[in-house]
Amino acid sequence: MNHDPLDEAADAHDAGASENSNENAGENAALRHRRIRSFVTRAGRVSVGQQRAIDELGPRFVLPYAPQHADWDAVFGRQAPRVLEIGFGMGATTAEIAAARPGDDFIGVEVHEPGVGALLKLIGEQGLGNIRILQHDAVEVLEHMIAPDSLDGVHIYFPDPWHKARHHKRRLIQPKFVAQLVARIRPGGYIHLATDWQNYAEQMLEVLSAEPALENTADGYAPRPDFRPVTKFERRGLRLGHGVWDLMFRRR
Ligand SMILES: C[S@@+](CC[C@H](N)C(=O)[O-])C[C@H]1O[C@@H](n2cnc3c(N)ncnc32)[C@H](O)[C@@H]1O
């Protein structure tokens, strides 16, 4: 995945901003003063199967965004270790991990509609009961819907690398956001990141190492834990000699 699918859209966006339209000026102000904007809304084609999954399974497995703490025990109908995944893409990794860890519950957050449909399809095909989905900006979900000390783990796999230096401000893994994330992980809980972009891996290691509430479980980068499956893209990248870096930190 050594590409930045959203770069073009972001370039168009930045071009608009330099013309100083009110809308873009407003969003830039939001970027400066408030939160990271780590994605650009893309129009994606939802397949017939994905749409069917959204219609049939959406009401049960997709939660509406609301700016207040959710009662996750009530949502999942049980009390179990809870993992937040940010940006699950098409959800293949999410489904595989959830199937392998039936005792844990997974909150998957993704803005891209075809991805939501794809994961719902996998939930239906595999009869997975331990995933719920939010189709919303994860930065807002984290800020408003997740209580302090309530997560057992956080997964962020191959987040958009935002290759160009002037887009680095859009990267999710930055000190302020990591501090917000860590505050919602219970002591002893973990944060697991993976990327195939070396410059972002270095930023991840620097930011996580500098966060006083985290400790590294490895000496630098971590070996890929068995529970994270190797994705199709990753396998192809590895064949081509590209690197993949995992990071596994624990909350103190
Ligand atoms: C490069 S993809 C990786 C997808 C998947 N994790 C994988 O390993 O294949 C990054 C995903 O993160 C999603 N994303 C980025 N920022 C997000 C945010 N703030 N909230 C929710 N989803 C986000 C994007 O829509 C995209 O699908």
Automatic annotation (TrEMBL):
It holds the Pfam family Methyltransf_4. This is tRNA (guanine-N(7)-)-methyltransferase. It is an enzyme of class 2 (transferase). Gene3D superfamilies: Vaccinia Virus protein VP39 (3.40.50.150). Its EC number is 2.1.1.33. It catalyses: guanosine(46) in tRNA + S-adenosyl-L-methionine = N(7)-methylguanosine(46) in tRNA + S-adenosyl-L-homocysteine. Belongs to the class I-like SAM-binding methyltransferase superfamily. TrmB family. The keyword tRNA processing applies. One of its GO terms (molecular function) is tRNA (guanine(46)-N7)-methyltransferase activity. Catalyzes the formation of N(7)-methylguanine at position 46 (m7G46) in tRNA. CDD domains: AdoMet_MTases. Residues 17-29 have a biased composition (Low complexity). The keyword Methyltransferase applies. Keywords: Methyltransferase, S-adenosyl-L-methionine, Transferase, tRNA processing. Pathway: tRNA modification; N(7)-methylguanine-tRNA biosynthesis.
